[in-house]
Amino acid sequence: MNLRFAKTLESAILQAKKDFAFTCCITGVEKDDIKEYHLDLEGAHLFQKSTYQPLKFCINNIFPINERDHADRRYDCMDYITYKDTGGSTISRNRTVPERTIWLLQHFHSDWATRGRARLRELLEGIESEIKDREILAMLPELKAIMEEYET
């Protein structure tokens, strides 16, 4: 499987949204209906675009997710783990790529789970054959093990 890249971040996100018919792969809500909830449909990167530059414009690395489930620290979301500390204060931290992968696999909407898992497999296969970044490649065994666990 060849990874697909766009020339700009905006065009990569747009194509990722088209791949999922402009529907949130977590809630199953279409773009126009998401606005009723005062949310936007965003392009969520499994490998964060700021950290993993070789995959920033990679369409396979982007999943259309509503803004709350993508990166709202007040909720259990793809980007952040949020919890209360012993004093009752809310703390959040960035999820790692393996944690993001698990979160996606656990939260794909039933109508989009097959397509979402296929996209994850395509991404991992493409990374293995096309990406030379050592940090990204070092994660592949763990990510493949996670995928296998959720495939059964």
Supply the key terms.
152 residues, alpha+beta, two-stranded antiparallel ribbon, 4 strands
Describe the structure.
This protein has helices spanning about 10-20, 30-35, 65-70, 95-105, 115-130, 135-150, and strands at about 40-45, 60-65, 80-85, 90-95. The chain has about 150 residues and is of the alpha+beta class. It has one domain. It has a two-stranded antiparallel sheet with strand order 1-2. The longest helix has 18 residues, at about 115-130. The radius of gyration is 15 Å and the shape is globular. The mean pLDDT is about 95.
Query: What overall form do the CA principal axes indicate?
Result: globular
Distance between the termini: 22 Å
Q: SSE order in H/E notation?
A: HHEEHEEHHH
Note the total helix count: 6
Identify the strand order in the major beta sheet: 1-2
Note the main sheet.
Answer: 2 strands, antiparallel
Overall strand count: 4
Low-confidence stretches: none
**Residue share in β-strands:** 5-15%
Mean pLDDT, nearest integer? 93
User: What is the count of distinct domains?
Assistant: 1
- Mind telling me the C-alpha Rg? 15 Å
What structural class do helix, strand and pairing data support? alpha+beta
Helix coverage percent of residues? 40-55%
